[in-house]
Amino acid sequence: MADLKEQCRLLVANALNAFGNELGMEAVTTAESLVLETPPNPEMGDLGIPMFPFAKSFRQAPPAIAAKIVALVQAQEAAQQVGTFVAVGPYVNVKLNKGAAIAAVLEKIASQKANYGAYEDEGKKPLDGRRVMVEFSSPNTNKPLHLGHLRNDALGESISRILKAAGAEVFKVNIINNRGVHICKSMLAYQKFHQEKNETPESLGIKSDRFVGDCYVEFDKWNKSDSSAEQLAQELLVKWEQGDEAVHKLWKQMNDWAIQGITQTYQRTGVSFDKLYYESETYLKGREEILKGLEDGIFYKEEDGSVWVDLEEINLDKKVLLRKDGTALYMTQDIGTAIYRHGDWSFNQLVYVVGSEQQYHFKVLFYVLKKLGYQWADQLYHLSYGMVNLPEGKMKSREGTVVDADDLINSLRDGALEEIVSKGREEAVGDPAAVAEKIALGALHYYLLKATPTKDMLFNPKESLSFNGDTGPYLQYMGARICSILRKAQEVGLAPLAASEAASLLTHEAEWELVKVLEQYPKILVKAAQNLDPSQVAGYLYDVAKAFSRFYHDCPTLALAQENVQLASARLFLATCTRQVLENGLDLILVPFLETM
Questions:
Q1: Strand order in the sheet with 169-176
Q2: Considering only CA atoms, which of 501, 521, 516, 523 is closest in space to residue 548?
Q3: How far apart are CA 382 and CA 510, in angstroms?
Q4: CA-based, 20 to 30 A from 2: which of 179, 250, 380, 546?
Q5: Half-sphere exposure (CA, 13 Å, Cβ side) for 229?
Q6: What is the model's pLDDT at position 119?
Q7: What 3-state class would DSSP assign to 381?
Q8: How many other C-beta atoms are found inside a 10 Å radius of the C-beta of residue 400?
Q9: Could you tell me which of 312, 370, 309 has the C-alpha nearest to residue 339?
Q10: What number of H helices and E strands is found in the chain?
Q11: Facing residues of 309 across strands?
């Protein structure tokens, strides 16, 4: 259908230039400059090209121009192959040759399969040549992943998949925040409450990252009753930076516990990385850069010995880069990490997936890197996203009110399993527990990604698990329904027709509307990649599901096989193509495709 659209543009552009010649004007209109719109009513046509932009140069009213252009287009022989052109007020509308349009779309889906949506003309992908590094997750090794991390992880992984599908070379990285006073707080709590008893995650039967997080909560309770606890944590941090052997041994043990548990959650949710960076290995590089910048006069030192940068040039106040005792801050670490990364993998763009509360941080970071002379700093981008909470309210790690990621997924899984059992579907789905896990991940990821990243959101577990409406399980159910149709067709020996044969038989309005939705997928993919916005893919897939639901209701397939096997086979081919698009898109937003539910 994309080819037909381009032919429409070309025919109208030729007509506009011919009309201009009649009026003594030079040809100035190109096909690419014409805007294609979708008429508000399908009866008015499939495409519309407004004539408003030509009213001034032609010195005529847009409706008069539209009528003249339609007459000139119809005189061109190629017009009949494209469709019927009509003047509707100030628009030149086109009722496309549906058979040709359907054949073009379905043939492309059938031939490209998993790659459908990624290719432009001549096999080229829209983001060919782009090298994008994506940083996301950035967990702290003093607690397990929580709901906020789940939104971050879903965004980072989904954006990476979307960029890759659009042709970019993607490198996924994760900075593990494994040093700092917050880590020392968990270490102190372990020493005080668990070390003498030789308690470990294994001995207590607790997931390893959860155990470390429990220690962090214990420190907060201790700190509220003992004013010396905070000072002890600061002293422990200084010992760590001085390389104290015993402190480093405990630090490594607790980091290993935390990272082991966090890695298990990544594997469970389908999140992966090409390289892990550790703050403990990068913060010193940042310190070196700051001290060098101080020598070069880029930064300055206060009387207490702390090092600062003046931000007046970007309309901000000054910012400390090294404390008076010489210890590093998050800013220091991020400076070093960025420099390491560009040396490791030269990127065209580095995308930081980090919450909106860090907008100031990244504005300063990008500025400091530019001041240090790194030209690639212009290629850094902060993908800012809003907070996510539960209906119960805001979560706090130190108070133990954070919802553990695994606990949330377990709850969703149990809810999905209960639904499977209540409907007596255990045998039909094969492995109820495995299917329930996939439904849980589909519910979680779709709910987190269907909102635009910048918006704060409330995650409602009950709503996310609904099998009706704008949810992940609804899309999974629609995919399973298509698979059921295909299985039953195979059982009765009904095979799909080829695209060229099927196209002329698919004349129902619901079939045409479904094809038009399927044809939009490549455009949606590119738009989502350019905007770094998975919600555009999520919203599109819901449109696919709704269009297929209408098709399923209005256009019988298996029931028609006895009286019209050709039409039934044509519809089966359309269902096959719909499955392909749905499966392609769901993978981009981390929703497992299910063949049975």
A1: 275-278, 169-176, 131-135, 349-355, 380-385
A2: 516
A3: 42
A4: 546
A5: 20
A6: 78
A7: strand
A8: 16
A9: 370
A10: 24, 13
A11: 319
Burial of 291 (0-12, 13-18, 19+ CB in 10 A): middle
- Which amino acid makes up residue 138? S
SS3 state of residue 436: helix
pLDDT in tens, 319-356: 999 999 887 788 988 998 999 999 999 999 999 999 99
Find, among 138, 220, 155, the residue nearest to 589 by Cα. Answer: 155
pLDDT band at 2 (very low <50, low <70, confident <90, very high): low
CA angle 53, 2, 120 (to 5 degrees): 110
* Residue 389: closest CA among 458, 321, 323, 303: 458
Nearest to 254 by CA among 337, 154, 140, 356: 140
Of the candidates 190, 576, 166, the residue with the CA atom closest to the CA atom of residue 201: 190
Binned at pLDDT 50, 70 and 90, residue 398 comes out as very low
Q: Which residues contact 26 (CB under 8 A, 6 or more apart)?
A: 20
The three-class DSSP label of residue 242 is coil
Residue entry with tokens 């700093």: 377
**Backbone region of residue 393 per phi and psi (left: phi > 0; alpha: psi in -120 to 50; beta: other values):** left
- Taking the C-alpha atoms of residue 167 and residue 169, their distance in angstroms, rounded to an integer, is 7
- Give the alpha-carbon dihedral of 453, 517, 525, 128, to 10 degrees: -170
DSSP string, 286-301: HHHHHHHHHHTTSSEE
Q: How far apart are CA 50 and CA 74, in angstroms?
A: 17
Rounded Cα distance, 353 and 350, in Å = 10
Phi, psi for residue 496 in degrees, rounded to 5:
-65, 150
Residue pair 9/36 in contact by the 8 Å Cβ criterion: yes
CA 2 to each of CA 11, 85, 101, 102, 274: distance values in angstroms, whole numbers, following the listed order = 14, 17, 8, 11, 36
Cα 109 from chain centre? 22
- The conformation of residue 142, written as its DSSP 8-state character, comes to T
Give the N- to C-terminal CA distance of the chain in Å, as an integer.
33
Q: Left, alpha or beta for 451 (phi > 0: left; psi -120 to 50: alpha)? A: beta
| Phi, psi of 275, deg, nearest 5 | -155, 140
- Kindly report, residue by residue over 363-394, the tens digit of the pLDDT: 999 999 999 999 999 999 999 999 998 887 55
Q: What is the pLDDT, as a whole number, of residue 562?
A: 87
What's the token pair of residue 27?
């040809």
Q: Which residues contact 214 (CB under 8 A, 6 or more apart)?
A: 206, 400
Residue with tokens 């003594």: 24
378 token code pair: 């212009």
Distance CA 437, CA 493 (A): 33
Angle 575-576-577 from CA coordinates, rounded to 5°: 90
Q: What is d(CA 476, CA 324) in angstroms, rounded to the nearest whole number?
A: 56
- Torsional class of 138: left (φ above 0), alpha (ψ -120 to 50), beta (otherwise): left
Residue 75 and residue 71: Cα distance in Å, rounded?
Answer: 7
